[in-house]
């Protein structure tokens, strides 16, 4: 199976399971006889709750993308609009492009990462990620404290159920999957600068990929 389809298949399997659970719930709820019917009704309602949970979990899993080893997950280009104000064009690995206006001197991209153990990897379930936030900050501590900051939420789903958060709260208890938060180091914004963000074994790594970006990073460091 194409590893890039793993999370889509996983979401589809959960939706199919949710449909089966709903059918079982309906079958139990529409049978008669008092106490037994009450017990069956409670069981049916529990199955409905399980079906809703599985559906929301499927939608949340669907928002993740597969990453194979070290690969670029986003490219960012910057255009200066004014003093400490930049237009950022963010192109994801699947070609989806979005534009944002960031205030400040520096930028950072964050992502949520699902890292599976070796057994799951052999089954074709590889590391998954979802871009989470794009933010700007200032060089000056005074401006960082008092000036207006810009932070954009990049998640494509707005479900109340957050699979990443549940896995993260479970810590090491699950064993087969780990929820991590990856952040690229803050780098300077500059007119015409072009950067790529890689997903590596240790998290996110931002790299300048044109002369303008390399020059401003070297001057900043």
Helix and strand content put the structural class at alpha+beta
- Given as residue ranges, the uncertain stretches (5+ residues, pLDDT < 50) are none
Which band does the percent of strand residues land in? 25-35%
Distance between the termini: 44 Å
Count every beta strand, where a strand is a DSSP E run of 2 or more residues: 11
Biggest pleated sheet: 6 strands, antiparallel
The overall number of domains is 2
Shape: elongated
What does the oligomeric state look like here? single chain
**Average pLDDT score:** 84
What is the count of helical runs? 6
- Secondary-structure element order, N to C: HHEEEEEHEHEHEEEEH
> Helix coverage percent of residues?
25-40%
Give Rg in angstroms: 22 Å
Topology summary:
Layout: H1 6-29, H2 34-62, E1 65-66, E2 71-82, E3 85-92, E4 97-103, E5 106-116, H3 118-122, E6 128-137, H4 141-146, E7 151-153, H5 163-170, E8 177-183, E9 187-188, E10 194-200, E11 203-208, H6 211-220
Antiparallel strand pairs: 1-6, 2-3, 2-10, 3-4, 5-6, 5-8, 5-9, 6-7, 10-11
Helix pairs in contact: 1-2
